[in-house]
## 1
Amino acid sequence: MKKILYILLIGLFSSCDSLLDVEPETLVSFDNFYKNEQDLEVTLYQLQSFIHDRIMEQHVQENAGLIMEPSTKRDYIWSPSSIVGSPAVGSIATDWGQTYWVVYMANVLLDNIHKAEVQVTPERIAYYKAQAYFGKAIGYFFLARRWGEVTITRNSSSSEVYGKKPLLEVLDTVIANATRAYNALPVYGSVVDRSGAVIKSKQFGSKGAACALLAHAYAWKGSMIDLMELAGNSRECYDKAIEYSSHLIKGEAGAYSLIRNPEELCQLFSDITKENPESIWEFTLDMQKDYISSVYLVGRPLIGYPVDPGVSESDQKYADSKIAYTTIKQLYDTLDLRKDAYFKDYKKYSLDVIEIKDKWTEGMTDPEAIRDTIAVKVKHYRDSITEITGGYAYPYKWRKAITEVDADFPWISKLIAVKSNYSYWRLADIYLLRAECYAKIGENGLAEADLNEIRGYNNVNAYPGSGGDEKGLKYAIFHERERELLMEGQRFFDIVRNGMEYINTYLPSDFQKLTHQDVKNGAIFFPICTNAFELNNLLRQNIYWAQYMN
């Protein structure tokens, strides 16, 4: 009977499109549930399923921040016609219901956990509460960065409607819940299930994951105070971001370490059987599902040959999303090791260096003839490679594919997912986030030390000796995050944290037209999708997007 209840429970949770549009009387009653730890565990796993499947369903901002070549589609990624002009596009891009399911599931666990206190030890009760606090903090963190001002729900059963809360109040909700999680959760490696087995997935809350969330939440809050000119003390926020970053770097929130070789890092990204010691919090690929997907991998559109069996060397240049070798050469210094790690056969296809083969001039003695022959051979080689690539690279940060045979064409295999646990926060990110915050409070020496820590093992000159350093320390740190975290989905938020100049310079064309007042009115956030207003007359659209609504 209980197994049937689990199935019905999960089916109910999975069937509704928008939490805030559900009539209160249709929500399930849990009066006869949550009697033992098994009941708590099934709810925690459902919460984790929602985090896996729903948190990254809207990633237009991340796509806007990706480094890739311009295209018509990309130019209009943030235009009102793309965001609110088409009901289909608008509902996909701006519906917050999927993210609120994460908050709701966390609240369900928190609201009902007391019912299991008779049969479950206080230590395990505290553990499940901490996991729920972490899930709730993650949900509101993504809501705050995507929509800015959002509703804060009281619990999982209240029938009241909610208005929006100010951005800083939402971020304070993130911080309050993440702090509770940080104080109560064990470090990774000591997180165990009800049988005592270690949970290997880094998607579950741990002290380190909560610490990374707090570092990013405080850095975002400080940046929002500065950018939006809100009442608050941004310096205190940057200090707290530095504090939590330092806990991670010093090993006080778990045993994390830098992978000081970009090739080894990519190999770890591509092997789900190995634990990546640099990865702090990640989306875990679920190989047990009937339909395996990696919807959370922001860099997926850039992945083609040789990972996707349906894309050949010469097909890559026709992809909608691609990176040119000229872009890579502008991004990285000549000797930077990441070029060879992040892109398949970079030396061969980039034409940075062409090896002169002895057989080209075998038997020749005339210096002029040798020189002319080499020139002809080099040109032929260059032209043949360029004809294949079109000048576009083959991203290779995530290297293994999950494929299936096409039912109609059984000789064809198609890519259904990238076989990777997506590391959303890793230690190199934390070093560079701390560097960014140090620079913001004027601790330039400490900022340079963190920056150079990452540069050193990537074979990049210490500051100020690398390309772009002439623009100053603030840009150097931002630029290093571009290089280190390429295709990982962080760049949009990095740009916003750095302020208006960066928003107007490093994002697609529609962002470049925004004024400071537009941004203060909510232009960097999604509009609220129209279906959210159907059962909630207290909601108000943000000022910037309201002007484009019918």
## 2
Amino acid sequence: MNLKINIKKQTPNFIISINIVTNTGIVGILGKSGSGKSLFLKCLAGLEPFDKGEIILDNKILYNDKINLPPQKRNIAYMFQNYGLFPNMTVKKNIQICAKVKNIDQIISMCRLNHLLNIYPNKLSGGEQQRVAIARILASKPKVILLDEPFSALDVGLRRNIEFDMIRLLSKFEGIVFIVSHDKDELYRFAQDIMIIDNGNIVETGKKDKIYKNPAHIQTAKLVGYDNIISAKLLNKNPNKRICIKSEDIKINESGKNAAVVIECIEDINNNIVYIQCNEEIIRVTDKKYYNKEQQVTFDLLNFIII
């Protein structure tokens, strides 16, 4: 399966410009709020118009300057954040209404919905509603599935409980999946490939291990957990470069090579969050120990990258 996307859309804040070719698998889309992630999905699904470009799925033109297929003819399934279930239909009818497969029983069993078939959506939990929405999508036999913040409407406990179900179901899907999330850890668990979007443009794409462990851009580093971006002159490196360090990769100890002063210490459940100042840089550190304001400390950088 092959999907070619080349679209442009003017928004009030920036121009969305996405040019990508992808094959079967799960692609995670990561970006800050308002970066154009969700708008990109809606353009792809045909729910939002864009200015120019083309979308080609398995050599079939979904959109170009002459063709603009409606959403229902694109073979692309979009799961809304509120799941979009029909309130006046039972679980079974919600699945049947979009079904293109001859037998939906296998999908119903796979989504663990056999005992809920005659129940209406308002009697379902958030996790159950999500499983119905996924079952309906799978029954429609799409080539592409678009998931826009699929867990945003769920509380933390429920999110953890149903995440396994979603990963299991999507791993059996033989098409292309795009999943948008603000949660870098969530995307790492789901996706094989990651696409970083900032101000409507692709900053970086690649296999998840490369993106997370060796990002090539500052925007990417910030999004995947490098919460300290400081001048490389701290290590007598090129001052035009930036050192990117995760909070957990900074160790406060008595024999550290770098001197600093504590400016704030915030108690947290697992590790305290300590803000230290070294020269002109404010650095965020996680540490089990509590430190007092204005306490003199030394620290070492255990792991970092320079961009």
## 3
Amino acid sequence: MSANTAPDTRPIPRHARKLLATPLLGLLFCAGSAVACVEYGINRDLLLDKTYATYPDAGRVQFDQKFASRSFKDCPEERDVPVFMTLEMPGLIYEGEVTFRGKSYPAYSAAPDSPLVMFYHHVAFSEDGPLRNGEEVPGLFEMSGGTSLEASIQYWAVVFSRGGRMRTPPTMTGSITLRAPSEPSLDHQSIVQLDLKFPVTTCPLQDKAETLQDVQTAELSVPGSTAKEKLVAIRMDCGVDPPRARMTLSDAGDAGNTGSQLTPTADSDAEGVRVQLLRNGSEVQFGQTWDFDPGVGGVHDHQFTARYIRTNEPLVPGTIKGEAVLNVDYW
């Protein structure tokens, strides 16, 4: 006679197995939730929009700066993460190096008379480094892990004077891209947009017509002789603000003329004589520029002297006319 001593192993109903599995799945879900860094903060893009009433006259002097910050928290573990950053600013011109906090950084401009701009990065607790346009540069992000806040990744733009006059350049637009192959949750891109404005004071100018006295043949007896000088003043009314400008006098009849004698107009019929212009007692040189920076507003007169000058051709009586153009380029 045999007896069955095995324990009672009744099958577990299907619905009961599902209930037993549920707590295990919940535990697995909680244990695997902290797998990536989480970004927070609002100052993510590098945006500088500013108007400058004054700036240093000397070259390569810092006069403004702005930064963007990418901040993270809840990173999965404590370790150093290699990161790689690329500055892309189409159209910028490399202008050499500037010194900032004892180090050399590349400087860029958007136009020949625009300010210089330098970019650099500050990644967590590592050393600051330059951002070079179109080049990928390395950095090291020290991730602390846990629930603590991480140090931010900062991008800086520093503005330097060019030296002398500067004018409003085209808007500088681009981006800074960061990639972290071993921690992709740090990957991001920041927009860069710099609007640097330099307002100018403009001054109305009025056309000026002057008539020289009649001249006798005897007064222009030999080539190079001159006669009948007359002052010609061009008035500039600038209001209360002081202007700054670069001025150029040119021959209206011949843009390539670099002398001091005006090309006769089409209705001139005299020969062997022309109208010559002087400034500050010396013959002008058409096309040559000079700076005008009086430091005060109000009315300013730009004075020239007009006179007849005998040329090498035979003298023929008649009327001689010439026209000059004064171009004022404000900055």
## 4
Amino acid sequence: MTVFLVGAGPGDPGLLTLRGAEALAMADVVVYDRLSVSALLDLAPPGAERISVAKSAGRAVMPQDDINALLVEKAKQGLTVVRLKGGDPFVFARGGEEAAALAAAGLHYEVVPGVTSAIAVPAYAGIPVTLRHSSTSFTVITGHEDPDKSDEVNWEAAAQLGGTIVILMGIGRLPKIVDRLLAGGLAPDTPAAAIRWGTRPEQHTVRSTLSAIAREQLASPSVIVVGQVAAMDLSWFESRPLFGKKVIVTRPRHQSSVLADRLRDEGADALIVPTIEIVDPLDGGAALNAAVAQASSFDWIVLTSANGAARFCERLRDGRDLAGVKIAAIGPGTAEVLADHNLVADLIP
């Protein structure tokens, strides 16, 4: 048994690593939180147990110590466990604590790094965290520290480092953080940006200045960028033609992925909600079998869907039975099914 601590990336399912996908495919149990990507749960086997611990903004359905104990318990049962965490498991994600608990229990574990939101989210907002002529370094800081820690982030010192400051989990303390960065010497008009739900279809970017950013209507989870690069707007993600649109795909689940992926490529939030289920006829296909047996007696055969075309072709004994018969295929998808069976549609309306 192995426990995989998998970084799910910042939100876009396409940013999951190959190793992360491999781990999910092997999972008996997936333990996931709010910031992990729900669509990735489909990569786990259908029978895998899925356990939500719903960690977000300092709140959790399950305390961290209990999560650690859960991972140990499931692993000791001989199960392959995937702990799916937003971003990278070792970047402000408490993955180190989980790894330490597994090590203390003598259990085998593997860390699968993920794409951190500190870099990916600004990139999806068109903000490079470094730029050769103006920002040659960047600092990543958490705005949500352990309250029991003996010291705290020296924001005044961070302000004097130069370069870009990227703040994760900082919305709740943003006014205080801004005051301390200003006290450290940053100018009030220093560019600042906040990106909520970065890399997801609902991404929203606010561009402002350091002195004004805390007055914007911001909510978590957001990544905050402070520095000259925050003024840049190399927008590509939010400028896609269907960005901000929600589209419901009602096709059967096993046939919906191609259309859903195309919609997502254009920026849409594609929701797969199957309203159609393909089932065998109540007569076991007797009527269809009888019709196919008489195929040569028809002038035209009209196939109205890819599913119908597939059922027809499955029952066709010999293509020569269609000699002299014309075939109409409604839609290119239906025509493709015919082509897969070496049949060419005479009409594709």
